[in-house]
């Protein structure tokens, strides 16, 4: 005989579907499969990093924590002058 507590918890699982398994509208056999088998949940994880200029300037005394368009233009000109 099944434990009353187990059956109560199983009933809550089927009614509330906390893991979003999709019990509603399923046949008894489908529910048995859903409850008895492991499942995979795909997650999207995002990492946030500090701005690149902050990482570049780290440890450089007097370095700025932002750049201007003039600085970028100057760097592009410098790089272009080194190209063969």
The termini sit apart by 84 Å
Quick one: overall form? rod-shaped
Q: Structural class of the helix and strand makeup?
A: mainly alpha
Uncertain stretches: none
Overall helicity: 40-55%
- Gyration radius (Cα, Å) is 29 Å
String of helices and strands? HHHH
Task: Describe this protein's structure.
The protein is mostly helical and about 80 residues long. Helices cover about 50% and strands about 0% of the residues. The chain is built from four helices and no strands. The model has no long low-confidence stretch (mean pLDDT about 85).
Q: Which keywords apply here?
A:
84 residues, mainly alpha
Question: What would a concise description of this structure say?
Answer:
The chain is mostly helical and 84 residues long.
Please give the structural blueprint:
Layout lengths: L3 H13 L11 H9 L15 H6 L11 H14 L2
């Amino acid at each position: 005989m099944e434990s009353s507590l187990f059956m109560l918890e199983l009933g809550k699982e089927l009614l509330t579907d906390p893991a979003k398994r999709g019990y509603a509208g399923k046949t008894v056999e489908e529910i048995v499969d859903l409850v008895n088998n492991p499942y995979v949940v795909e997650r999207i994880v995002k990492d946030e990093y500090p701005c690149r200029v902050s990482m570049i300037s780290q440890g450089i005394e007097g370095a700025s924590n932002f750049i201007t368009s003039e600085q970028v233009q100057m760097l592009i000109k410098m790089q272009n002058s080194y190209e063969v």
